[in-house]
Amino acid sequence: MEIRAISEAAPDRRPPAVNEDLILTGPDFAVVLDGASAPRVPVDSGCRHTVAWLVRQLATQLATPLLSRSSASLPDLLAQAIAAVRDSHAGTCDVSNPDSPSSTVAMVRMQPDHVEHLVLADSPVVMRSPDGRITVHSDDRIDLLPERTLEAVRRLRNQPGGFWVASTRPGAAYEAVVGTTDRADVDAIALLTDGASRYTERYGHSWDELLEVLTTEGPRELLNRVRAHDTASTTSGKQYDDASVVLLQRPYVGKPGRRTYCGGCG
């Protein structure tokens, strides 16, 4: 698979802009992390570290087993990473605090005959087959909460009947949306944080159009279109957000407009 990626901070962040998203890619894997931004009201997280620190530490813990082609499952790899990060600051921070920094996780790993995926919280993985069929792997449990107050989110985060994120509970990894797809049935995969997936989820474009923009014009153009919508938006909620995209695409040969895929090219 060819890999193209982009990640940028929300344009309305005061300098120096800190991007709480992070992208990690390798020869046969991709990971997208989206740190939970601090709410507008002050919250005591019990942690001396920032959300960006947590995201970097999770990526660091995931990188080694993915690069060494560990045989462990994706939930196992994520659980081990969460545990390692938790243990690294348990001596300085209250890792039992329900407001401890957290992150979404989207992962794909290419195997010889299939593609594995894992989605924890609202960073979807979107796949397109050679015949154009779109499959969206998403975790919408936070959207199903009966209310979205700070108190409700605190009470239901990483709890049965609530929603799950990567924070200080390794068991959250086993609540992720996971699955496999035959490799022959995949010609393109997109991993997106919600700052990029809002092109569809907030602004109404189809997933098919999102994949078409990505595969023909690239991740930069998708974010350009998202930012144009953001600027013009009058909807409630966060106007701008950190936005990240990873596109994995099977190479194809032939004349422009005719997709003839290279069967032995990833």
Overall geometry comes to: globular
Order of helices and strands: EEEHHEEEEHEEHHHEEE
Q: Which ranges are low-confidence, i.e. pLDDT below 50, for 5 or more consecutive residues?
A: 253-258
Ends apart, CA distance between termini: 5 Å
Helix content range of the residues, please?
25-40%
Report the radius of gyration as a whole number of Å.
Answer: 18 Å
Briefly note the structural class of the backbone: alpha+beta
Mean pLDDT: 91
Tell me what portion of residues adopts beta-strand conformation. Answer: 15-25%
The total strand number stands at: 12
Main β sheet profile: 5 strands, antiparallel
Number of helix segments?
6
Q: Which sequence of strands runs across the widest sheet?
A: 1-10-9-6-7
Summarize the structure in words:
The protein is of the alpha+beta class. 27% of the residues lie in helices and 24% in strands. The chain has six helices and twelve strands. The chain has helices at 51-67, 74-89, 150-156, 194-201, 207-217, 219-232; strands at 2-8, 21-26, 29-35, 103-110, 114-120, 125-128, 134-137, 177-182, 188-192, 243-249, 252-253, 260-261. The strands form three sheets. It has a five-stranded antiparallel β-sheet with strand order 1-10-9-6-7. Strands 2-3-4-5-8 form a five-stranded antiparallel β-sheet, covered by helices on one side. The chain has a two-stranded antiparallel ribbon with strand order 11-12. A hairpin with a 2-residue loop joins strand 2 (21-26) and strand 3. The chain is globular, with a radius of gyration of 18 Å. Residues 253-258 have low confidence and may be disordered.
